[in-house]
Amino acid sequence: MSHLIFNQPSEDKSALEDAGDFTPRFDDRGLITAIVTDAGDGELLMVAHMNAQALALTIQTGTAHYFSRSRGKIWKKGETSGNLQTVKEIRTDCDQDAIWLKVEVAGHDATCHTGRRSCFYRTVTLREGKPMLDIIDDERHFDPQDIYGK
Q1: What span, in angstroms and rounded, lies between the C-alpha atoms of 61 and 89?
Q2: Residues at the annotated binding site for Zn(2+)?
Q3: DSSP category for residue 27
Q4: Do residues 119 and 46 touch, judged by C-beta distance below 8 A?
Q5: pTM, whole model, 2 decimals?
Q6: Domain span including residue 109
Q7: CB of 20 within 8 A of CB of 93?
Q8: Structural domain contains residue 96
Q9: Residue of 26, 37, 60, 127 with fewest CB within 10 Å of its CB?
Q10: How many structural domains does the chain have?
Q11: Residue 139 in domain
């Protein structure tokens, strides 16, 4: 599969904001933030990062690929768990420095490595002057031990 080449972003702000060339603005580490929601119900599933190769693979294959900052490599989301993300729509923000993927999740319909549907399964609350986490979605769609051996 040929590797897409992205042109450098224009210095002209109106060129970034209008239709035409998609010229993603990667940060100084070569990454762009990807916000991922369910294409059906709009639930926020995860936030990740992409480098140019992961973004190109996502556009070309229709399957979400991301760049793992901790592992320093590209990964196809769901390759191990079976919870592949089929991309239904890709959007970018006004200055093209963030991507929004609307996806359908296969397999267990779970995105988080903890087995939950969304990585955003906790709320932050203030109790007695201290920020605390509360779990609002404890439903596990799969057992991470069975999938990842962790």
Answers
A1: 13
A2: 94, 112, 119
A3: -
A4: yes
A5: 0.89
A6: 13-114
A7: no
A8: yes
A9: 127
A10: 1
A11: no
One digit per residue, pLDDT tens: the chain, 150 residues?
557 888 888 787 777 788 788 999 999 999 999 999 999 999 999 999 999 999 999 999 999 999 999 999 999 998 888 899 999 999 999 999 999 999 999 988 889 888 899 999 999 999 999 999 999 998 888 877 777 876
CATH code of the domain containing 21? 3.10.20.810
Residue 25 lies in a domain: yes
CB 121 within 8 A of CB 137: yes
Handedness of CA 31, 79, 134, 150 (dihedral sign): negative
What is the full DSSP assignment across 134-145? EES----SS-HH
Tell me, rounded to whole angstroms, the distance of Cα 141 from its chain centroid. Answer: 19
Asked whether residue 47 is assigned to any structural domain, the reply reads: yes
Q: Is the dihedral of CA 23, 29, 34, 35 positive or negative?
A: negative
Residues of the binding site: 93-95, 97, 112, 119
